[in-house]
Amino acid sequence: MIDRAYVQRMARYNRWQNENLYGVADRLPDEERRRERGAFFGSIHKTLSHLLWGDRIWMSRFTDLPRPPGGIPDSVSLYSNWEDLKIARVGFDQTILDWADTIDPSWLAADHIYYSGATKREVTKPRWLLVSHMFNHQTHHRGQGSLPADTGGRQAA
Question: Quick check: 115 and 121 in contact, CB under 8 A?
Answer without folding.
Answer: yes
